[in-house]
Structure formats: C-alpha cells, structure tokens
Amino acid sequence: MRTFAVLWRKEVDALFSSPIAYVLIAVFLIVMGYSFTLKLFITHSQSLVDLFFQMFVLILLTVPIITMRLVAEEKKLNTLEVLLTSPVTEPQIILAKFAASLALVAFMLGLSGVYAVVLALYGDPDWGPIFSGYLGLLLFAASLVGVGLLSSALTNNQIIAAVVSLSLFLLLWIIDEVAPLLPAPLDDVVLHLSLSGHFKPFATGSLYLSDVAFFLSSAFLTLFLAIRALSWR
Amino acid sequence: MFFFGWLVAAILLFALALLLPSRLARSKVRGAVLSTLIVVGAVAVTAAGNVAIFRHDAHLDLSRDAANSPPSQLQSVLAGLNTEVSLFYFYNSSDANAYRAKELLTAAGRENRLFHFRAIDVDRDPAEARSFGVRDYNTSIVLAAGRRVVVENNTDLVAIAFAILRALKERVDVVCFITGHGEAVDVGSPQFRYNHLENLENHDKVGSSDVLEGAADGLDRFSLALTALGYQVRAITVAPSVSPDCKALVDIGPRQEYARGEAQLIADYLAKGGRFLVGLDPAFRLGDELGTLLKTAGLSSDPVTVIDPLNHAGPDDTKVAVPYYPPHPITRKIALTIFPDARPLRIANPLPGGINASVIAESSMESYQRSASQTSPATSDQPIGRGPAVLAAALEGHWPDGANENNEAFRLVLVGNANFASNAYFPYVSNGDLAVGIVRWLAEDAARPVATTQTYAQREIILTQNQIRAIFLSVELLLPLSVLGFGGLVWWRRR
Predict the structure, then answer these.
(1) Tell me, what's the pLDDT at B144?
(2) Contact at CB, A218 and B46, closer than 8 angstroms
(3) Nearest-Cα residue of chain B relative to residue A214
(4) What is the spatial distance between Cα A211 and Cα B201, in angstroms, rounded to a whole number?
(5) pLDDT per residue over A95-110, tens digit each?
C-alpha cells in the first residue's frame, strides 16, 4: 500500500506540475461557466442536467489528452524499464497511474461543484440529480481513464494512444444512433455499449445498477488488460 | 444493499484477477496462448456480468418528486403482472412529453421481465407504424393474451396503465347502474374542459388532466373510472327483469321508493349469485320493498344523519371522515374517505344462516346521530344515539329465501351514503378508490391500480442585477483565472 501511495504521489506530481493540466482545467471551467451562467440567467433553472451532458462531452475529449502519455511516454523514454526493475508490481504501477489521472478529473469536477453551490445560495436545487450526475461523471471518467490507460499501454506512441482512445470514445458515444439500423439482437448489444445511454439516467437523478456496473466493470476490465499488457511486455 | 453487494463482489473479482502471475509460462508460445485465454475470459466474465445485472436491474430514483419513476398506477399494474404484456408506443422524438413517456416506459420495461416495451419513432419508421395501422403520434398498442387495446393521442402513463389493465381483463364485466328512482345516473358522453394547468402548457398533454364537467351529485366520474378499468357500464331499470349479464348492480342515491315487485326481482338476481351495491342518503325512505330486501339479508338503516365531532372533513361535522378500516379486500390500500351526510347501518345479530357480514367503514367513538329532518343548528345538538356508527358493510353468502340452483354466493355492499361516489366527492382522497374497490370486490376482479396525484411545478431562481454580475464574475472569470494563476505559480517554482 505504501509503494502504491509513493507511486500515486509521483504520478500526481507529474500531472499537476505540467501546464497541460491547468490549461485543461481552465478551459473546462470557462466553457462550463459560460454554459452555466447563460442557462441560469435566461431560464432561471435550478437544474444542472444540461451542464452534466456538456461535462460528459468535455471529459470525453480531455481524458485522451490526460492518459495518452501515462505508459507510452515511459516506454519511449525507457523509464518504464527502470520502474519495473524497482520493487514495484505491474498492478501497482497501473493502479497508481489510473488513480492519479482520475484524481485530476475529480479535481476538475470538484471545481465545477461551485455551480451547485451557487444554486444552493440563491435557490433550492434538487440535490438528488446533482449527486447522481457527479457520480455518473466520475464513473464515466473512470471507465474512460481505464480505456485510455490500456491504449497507452499497448503502444509507444502518445499520439497513437490518444487517437485510438478518442476514436473509441467517439464511436461509443454515438453508437446508439446506429442501433435502429441493425437487426435484433445486435441492436440491443450496440445500444448497451452506448456511453451516453448509460450516462443519461445519472444526469436526471436515476441510478441504475446496470449503468453503475457498466462503467465500473469496463474500468476494471481495461485496468486488468493494461496490467496484462504491461506484464506481457 | 444490492448495490453494495454487487460492488464488493466486483472488487473481490478484480482483486483475485490481480493475483494472477505476471509470467504465465516459460515458453513464449504457451505464454501467449494462456494470455489470450485470460483476456478472452476476462472479457467474457465482464460481458456476462453486465448481461446478468441488466436482467436483474435495480433502480434508485434520487429526484425530489420521484420524477424519474413511472406513476404509481403503472408501477402497481406492472408489479402485479403474472402474464406477458407487450406495449408498442408510437411517438415523435421532438415531443418532450412523448419522449419523457417513452423514457419512463423504457425504465419500466427494464424492471419487469413480463413487460415488453418497444418505442417506435413514427417519423423515423413510418413503415413500422403503418404495419400496426397507426397514423397518429402518441398511440399505444397493448397486447396481452391475444387481446389488443389501443390508446390514441395520449402521453399520460396513467391512461396507459389502465389500458394494460383492460388488455389483461379476460372478460368484459357489465356494471349495471339502476335508474328509475331519481338516481343521478348518466352514462352517456361526459363533458370535459381543459384545466388551467393545460392552458399554461399549451394543451400539449392531451387528455392527461382534462376536467370533467358534470352535476355535483352525478356519477360520471365513478362511471368513467370503471370504464377505464375495462368494465362496461350500462344504465338499466329493474323492471321487467334484471339482465343476467349484469355482473354487478349499482344503485347509488335513489330518491323514490322502489316500485312493487322490484325488490323481488333483485332478490331473485342475488339468489342466483348476483352482486349489488346500494348507497343510501339519510333523507331516503327505504319503503317496504327495499327495506324488506335488506332485512332478508340482515341489514337495516334508520333515516338519521351521523354526526362525528372527532373525524370530519373541514368544519362540517356531518362530513364524516374515516381514517382507519377493518381488514377487508375492499379497504386494502385505502386512505381517508369522506361520507357527507351519512346514515347509520344496522347489522342483525345473528345474521340469517349462510351469510357473513364485514364492516367496511364506521364513524368514531364520539359520533352520534340526529334525525335527518333536523336542519336547524339549534336542534342538531340533541343526539339520538351515541357511539360508532356503521357506515358501510359487505355481505356474502347464500341468499336466504332463494332457490340457489347454481349454488353461487351473492355479494352485497350497503353504504349509508350516496354522496361518497358522486362527482363532487369521488376525487376526495380515497373516495374514488373505495367506490371502485367495492365494484372490483363485487365483480371478483383481481386487477389492482392505485391512485396518486402528480405535481406540475418547476422551481426557478430569480436574481437581481447585482447577483447576476457577482455570479458571472466569480464563475466565469475568477475561478478559471485562479486555476491558471495557480498553474503559472507551480510552473514558475519548478522552473
């Protein structure tokens, strides 16, 4: 556990010492802040539902940038060999990188919690959908970070890692649009792979075990595969 | 609990997977084969786990007004399913109400294995709509056990719940409302108007909140509720004979005595296993005919009014309120009921052989009675009798004087009040549920809808100009600039 904590700290330091993290967070907050104020001032709505869908898209676009360098850069700079010869295991390395990347996304989401605070200061928002929306975004981010980590573990090139994970995310985002064109039961399978389909209930305050399981199990699976990819190397 | 149980199981499985050795075999080929098998196995386990959870899904609605859950009527109907039901919903995805109905029905479909739901966007798939003979948006087709019920131009899930009940009904029971004694029965076409909520919403919720316009003492609401449940409602006269296809007779609020021979016709009907609901006001004189009929079953009632100083609706103590009930199939899931101007009932002790009686509702211990003709407040305080008065009773058994050829048991419900089921009081708390529940018990109907109310409100935040400026500056400028400033500081120190 101590080794994991040391590795996690190292990864967090690496992420937060990079200007990319701050630029990403600032851009995220500017875009979301604009949407939030616009919606609040025009519609007087006390809901963050629309904002959650925009955060969903922004996370989908930013996670590949966060995860692309995680393993691929270490491979390119040959620092992975050094790391593997030290008394650490592959699961510890992968889990530390995963936890650090997720911490960055969580930090970003945490700052956007200011919007909920504003709603609470001036109104009486429904906290259920706000809580489930953030939970959904966190679980969604966990599964994306897992996929991004796996693609980074499979290649030495950061750009390829980013392009592969981004392409996969975009495909899984809009895959439910293709479902009606497919014959049964393929349409159902494709529908169940849709990222937006699994996220939508969270944003409106509906918590389905199947949606939680989808995001968590895909995070677990991709982490496991990333560990096997690192071991196979 | 199910959530956390699943979470612990998933984490344990993941932890076990991490215990697999990094090097699986000395031979590279064997290692590759084993690795491939492990990867395939992990993907298969994940997929199987997801499919299993999807089939046994659990749902938690965190919204304040349970806005993400289907209405209680639909939930109740689906929970009581014991046969497969298919619902095809033809909607327009740009209609927000239709889209919401589709989403809630999808959610309901996920939670019930016997409920098969399919939404068809009419604009995207017109051929599919045509194959079902559907031309209008928001049409629902319910299929159950070879029966088909169509609900047109409706996004109201309560209406769809009742459509499912109609489709589930194996037979169409006829409920016959007796007329000819001054009863306010009109089972023709009821008149509706839009309520103010629909005006606000540009009438886009078709039929969901129409308001019925009818006489206060009429029975239109009662009759419509029965029709929605799949009963056929008919107005009849007792003479010359009671139609044998009447599953139940209903006589609410007669104002004139029964004509000679009518009671015998009803007695003959009951002797053959008939069902009868009678609701009587205090001002009504039973007369020889109805009085004798009820007496044969062990029932009687004086023309007095029940006053309940403890449980009553509003300031009027003649509007007797009943909050608790003895256990009976009729009163299952019934909340408060109101009986305006009720008369007390008496149940003979002992009852005629072969008849069992149950009290359905009674007034409180502090209630008393006064003559129905006493209208002056000065005389109204003089009680005739004190103590709880029976307001409704249910009887079943074999009709005492009848030649019961088929050995079928009759059922009779006598309510010492006619107003409880009238248009004016039918919507009061559980009055409607009680009236419908009595008919369902009489007709031995196992379907079980529950009535609830829905809120149509949107909470808003109204801000002053200063507040708008402060929020914009802090959220749009201060927050992102602080992050950039902090990042710059970190970069400067590292440099």
Answers:
(1) 87
(2) yes
(3) B50
(4) 33
(5) 999 999 999 999 999 9
Question: How far is it, in rounded angstroms, from Cα A199 to Cα A216?
Answer: 12
Is B42 in CB contact (< 8 Å) with chain A? yes
Residues 195-224 of A with CB under 8 A from B: 201, 204-210, 212-214, 216-218, 220-221, 223-224
How is residue B248 written in tokens?
A: 């139940």
Write out the DSSP string of A61-130: HHHHHHHTTTTHHHHHTTHHHHHHHSS--HHHHHHHHHHHHHHHHHHHHHHHHHHHHHHHHHS---HHHH
Predicted-complex ipTM score: 0.86
pLDDT band at B211 (very low <50, low <70, confident <90, very high): low
Phi/psi region, residue A124 (left: phi>0; alpha: psi -120 to 50; beta: rest), is beta
* B305, β-bridge pairs: B370
Q: Summarize pLDDT for B383-400 with one digit per residue, the tens.
A: 677 889 999 999 999 888
- CA gap B84, A112 in Å, rounded: 46
Q: Which of B35, B57, B463 sits opposite A210 (nearest CB)?
A: B57
CB atoms within 10 A of CB B350: 7
Token pair recorded at residue B152: 């047109």
Rg (alpha carbons) of chain A, rounded to whole number: 19
**Cα-flanking dihedrals φ and ψ of residue B153, to 5°?**
50, 55
Put simply, the answer to whether A36 touches B475 (Cβ < 8 Å) is yes
Residues B325-340 pLDDT 10s: 988 988 877 878 899 9
- Please tell me the distance from the alpha carbon of residue B196 to that of residue A67, in angstroms, as a whole number: 54
Residue A178 belongs to domain spanning: 2-232
Q: What pLDDT was estimated at residue B193?
A: 46
Contact B442, B275 (CB under 8 A): yes
Mean pLDDT of the B66-93 span: 84
Residues B485, A8: contact at Cβ < 8 Å?
no
Work out the angle at residue B467's Cα, subtended by the Cα atoms of residues B464 and B468, and round it to the nearest 5 degrees.
Answer: 85
Provide the number of structural domains found in chain A.
1
State which amino acid sits at residue B61: D
What is the SS3 assignment for A233?
Answer: coil
DSSP H or E run through B148: strand B147-151
Residues in B 409-468 with any Cβ partner in A closer than 8 A: 458-463, 467-468
pLDDT score of B212 more than 70? no
Q: If contacts are CB pairs under 8 Å, which of residues 60-99 in chain A contact chain B?
A: 89-91
